[in-house]
Amino acid sequence: MKLVETTEDCQIPCMQRIAEGPAVMPPQSLARRIKLMIRRRMSPKTERRFKKRTNDLMNWFSRLQGKPELPAVRPASDAATHLVAGDLVRVRSKAEIEATLNNWRQLRGCTFMPEQVQYCGTTQRVLKPLLRFVDERDLTVKTSKGIVLLDGVVCQGTADFGPCDRCCVLFWREEWLEKIDQPSA
Which of 42, 99, 66 is nearest to 54 (CA)? Predict the structure, then answer.
């Protein structure tokens, strides 16, 4: 792969040069390896379509078996309070959040990751609303609504890959957060 020289201040083009090689990975099941192999070959747009169709299919099977569809609770579009930087919020309980998720553990395309469970039930401060971000899968700038970043809430690594020093911020849907009224000073 030929490296492209760039004058922009971005780490992505030079990742190949700064990487020292893959870290030791925990063992993965055959099913997990197959899932990753298929997912890596899909574009983000194709992955979204695939997840929507399979979620609809899994809900159809659930209806046939008399089981509830996912998500169990469909958040209303006006349920989200528009949070701003500095607002105090309570992260809803794991059960409340999981009731809003589809079969892919997503709400409106935002995945609730196992790394976020430790923050359920805690009080946090909003760092800022997320309006734009770089999607590293296809290197495009995406816009978003209803997603916020919480102050000091970062990923410390995953169960799938082990510890990671990158400290990525976690995306939180406003529907997963409950605004706490601050007493006026």
Answer: 42
Tokens read off for 95? 């059960």
Q: What is the pLDDT of residues 38-59, one digit of tens each?
A: 878 888 888 888 888 888 899 9
Distance CA 102, CA 109 (A): 10
CA–CA gap between residue 57 and residue 60 (Å, rounded): 5
Instruction: Tell me which of 8-22, 50-64, 155-169 is least confident.
Output: 8-22
Q: Are 98 and 73 contacting, i.e. CB atoms less than 8 angstroms apart? A: no
Q: Is pTM, for the whole model, over 0.90?
A: no
With residue 180 as reference, give the H or E element that holds it.
Answer: strand 177-180
Q: Does domain 70-180 have CATH number 2.40.50?
A: no
Domain chopping of the chain, boundaries: 70-180
